[in-house]
């Protein structure tokens, strides 16, 4: 065995989960999971075969027959146990996430915690999966609804939140009585698989949760499979549009959360220091790899004078490996991602935007091979420039100018995306007008990343979302259940005959 083969053999392989067993894939196609700060290979992940996808779905279909009959309290208690296990393993999960994805340890814990909130919500399923009853709608007739599970559901998750977004999906689907096939991102599946192990430890029965890995072929197999009833997706607009069209054509329920261009509108009366802190954190945190990143700021009126202060604030952020103390900005997920961000920065310069702060090729001691881009700021940006029209998905903040709040609102509403937006102001009147007139699904008032807690639902809109329902909260219960309406009348032996009724009415 040569040195290359020995090195490959020494790297762990990521398993599939099929029918309660972690199994080695028989695939001939594998890719490496790489630490983005060091380029060290952490594991090899398989591109599952068509037969393995079929086996995972078949396991879910078999398990559904009994799981759908499991009492709702028994389902809830599994998720009570699951949230406890996640809390106990928070440090381990964050370390895994940082190693494969690059986030700082603090941000990795936040990733896990925001998913944990949905697990806690799933534990309250007894209060969420309630039908309705109307008593005596006609003579002795009652009508009521049942919220029943669909069957086998599937989730396709992205690289940027490998803990939170899987936890958005399978807990709510399983708590409502469905079984689930999860396809994590092939770029960073390790923390997802550890969460899956803990889910089984919490008591999820065999076949109720299954995991396959892969790329386009596996995604298409999920979209096409006749036994999968619903698909949830979070990722790029290009892939999300494909998934929605293909899965919907196959007759499935589909929800796709996709790309964004989130604008933060800054009025000159805003608290300056708090606003600068919020913009820097929301633009550059997670190296800008958030679909809810505040990547675009619209400076209104005198707030345009804050550019120098914003640049100074960005320069204070530490760029390093995610495990280093006090790190603010870690690496991008891959060399290809870094090259794409750098090319967009170059395009911004070529198209006439002013490069206020250039973060290309920073020197990061000890991490010379890392995929780093430091905080970057452009001013003088206008619609039509690539850095405005495209989602950069890196630590790049672009600044636009507006004379008035009305002009800023019109600018935001003209953008096709509708994931999130924020207004920074101390004026209640301005805030109320903004939240009423802005055509964006999630609005923050002095909150830069307005992702709601699971008591509500993620509510992106327009080009950022396909499908009517969000991936967690009350909308997820609706998405993962079928409403069945029952109209019932019972007679006792002494009741007089009502005779034959040939009309459509109830008597």
From TrEMBL:
| Domain (Aldehyde dehydrogenase): residue spans on this chain | 22-486
Q: CDD domains, from UniProt? A: ALDH_F6_MMSDH
**Which E.C. number(s) belong to this protein?**
1.2.1.27
> To which protein family does this belong?
Belongs to the aldehyde dehydrogenase family.
Gene Ontology molecular functions: methylmalonate-semialdehyde dehydrogenase (acylating, NAD) activity
Which top-rank group of organisms is this from? Answer: Bacteria
On whether Metal-binding is a keyword of this UniProt record, the answer is: no
Which terms are listed as keywords in the entry? NAD, Oxidoreductase
Which positions carry the signal peptide feature in this UniProt record? none
The molecule here is called methylmalonate-semialdehyde dehydrogenase (CoA acylating)
Q: Give a GO biological-process term.
A: L-valine catabolic process
């Amino acid at each position: 065995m040569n040195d290359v083969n020995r090195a490959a053999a020494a790297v762990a392989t990521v398993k599939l989960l099929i029918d309660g067993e972690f199994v080695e894939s028989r695939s001939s196609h594998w890719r490496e999971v790489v630490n983005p700060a060091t380029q060290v290979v952490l594991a090899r992940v398989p591109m599952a075969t068509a037969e393995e996808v079929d086996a995972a779905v078949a396991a879910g279909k078999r398990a559904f027959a009994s799981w759908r009959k499991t009492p709702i309290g028994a389902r809830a208690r599994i998720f009570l146990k699951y949230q406890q296990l996640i809390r106990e393993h928070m440090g381990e999960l964050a370390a895994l996430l940082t190693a494969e994805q690059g986030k700082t340890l603090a941000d990795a814990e936040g990733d896990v915690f925001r998913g944990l909130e949905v697990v806690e919500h799933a534990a309250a399923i007894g209060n969420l999966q309630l039908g309705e009853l109307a008593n005596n709608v006609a003579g002795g007739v009652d009508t009521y609804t049942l919220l029943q599970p669909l069957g086998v559901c599937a989730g396709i998750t992205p690289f940027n939140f490998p803990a939170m977004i899987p936890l958005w999906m399978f807990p709510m689907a399983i708590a409502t009585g469905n079984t689930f096939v999860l396809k994590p991102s092939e770029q960073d599946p390790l923390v997802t698989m550890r969460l899956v192990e803990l889910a089984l430890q919490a008591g999820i029965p065999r076949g109720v949760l299954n995991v396959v890995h892969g790329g386009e072929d596996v995604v298409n197999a999920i979209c096409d499979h006749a036994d999968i009833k619903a698909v949830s997706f979070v990722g790029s607009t290009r892939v999300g549009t494909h998934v929605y069209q293909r899965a919907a054509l196959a007759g499935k329920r589909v929800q796709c959360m996709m790309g964004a261009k989130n604008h933060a509108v800054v009025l000159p009366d805003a608290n300056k220091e708090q606003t600068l802190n919020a913009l820097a954190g929301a633009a550059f945190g997670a190296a800008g790899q958030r679909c809810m990143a505040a990547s675009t700021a619209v400076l209104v009126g005198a707030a345009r004078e804050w550019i120098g202060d914003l640049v100074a604030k960005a320069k204070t952020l530490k760029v390093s490996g995610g495990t280093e103390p006090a790190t603010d900005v870690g690496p991008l997920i891959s060399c290809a991602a870094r090259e794409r961000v750098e090319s967009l920065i170059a395009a911004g310069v070529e198209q006439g935007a002013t490069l206020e702060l250039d973060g290309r090729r920073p020197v990061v001691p000890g991490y010379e091979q890392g995929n780093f881009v430091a905080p970057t700021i452009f001013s003088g940006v206008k619609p039509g420039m690539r850095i405005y029209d495209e989602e950069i998905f890196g630590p790049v903040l672009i600044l636009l100018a507006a004379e008035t709040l009305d002009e800023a609102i019109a600018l935001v509403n003209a953008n096709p995306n509708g994931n999130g937006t924020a207004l920074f102001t101390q004026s209640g009147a301005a805030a109320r007008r903004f939240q009423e007139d802005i055509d964006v699904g999630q609005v923050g008032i002095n909150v830069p990343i307005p992702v709601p807690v699971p008591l509500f639902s993620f509510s992106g809109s327009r080009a950022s979302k396909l499908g009517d329902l969000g991936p967690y909260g009350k909308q997820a219960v609706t998405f993962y259940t079928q409403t069945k309406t029952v109209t019932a009348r019972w007679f006792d032996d002494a009741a007089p005959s009502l005779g034959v009724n040939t009309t459509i009415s109830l008597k």
